[in-house]
Amino acid sequence: MVRDDIGELLARVALRDRSAFSLLYQKLSPKLFAICLRMLKDRGDAEEALQDVFVRIWDKAGSYSGDGMNAYGWLCAITRYRCIDRLRAKRPESEDLEAAEELADLGPDPEQTAMLRSEGARIDTCMEALDPDRARAVRQAYVEGLSYQELAETFAVPLNTMRTWLRRSLLKLRECMDEHARPEQG
């Protein structure tokens, strides 16, 4: 699903369009469920978390103010935060203060949020500089969590070729990110 499509569906969900919500669920629930399952490591908890995520999406779609390009990231963030909430709720109250401090510091502050958006725009620019197949492989590996073997099968290339693609693509991304680094404000 194209990022612009996700943003458009979110806008329709904000208007309480049930068919758009259904389509959003149909297209994105497998990916968001994978995030839940990875974080919670329990299928039942992951299913409950996913249900909570979509209730939250229905309730909060109107608060999404992105340009459509960050809609998938916004949905992933909702999913991660919901899973973190569930993990926090499962922790016994007797855990030490250090663990509580680590959990309390998970969300970025406004300055970090602005920097992350800027960083995301730089990453998008650099991803566009990659060969389309390589960019798709990088996204599927590092955003969707596909294994090297799954990617090799998807792209019909040997496993070592896929590893080389990803390694070289990451090196090109790092080089591009370094070239497009903003000078620090002083």
From TrEMBL:
One GO term (biological process): DNA-templated transcription initiation
Keywords of the record: Sigma factor, Transcription, Transcription regulation
Pfam families, A to Z: Sigma70_r2, Sigma70_r4_2
Tree of life domain: Bacteria
UniProt domain RNA polymerase sigma-70 region: residue ranges: 24-91
Domain RNA polymerase sigma factor 70 region 4 type: 122-173
Keyword Transcription in annotation: yes
Coiled-coil annotated residue ranges, if any: none
MF-aspect GO terms: DNA binding; sigma factor activity
Family of this protein: Belongs to the sigma-70 factor family. ECF subfamily.
Name the record gives this protein: Sigma-70 family RNA polymerase sigma factor
UniProt organism field: Rhizobium glycinendophyticum
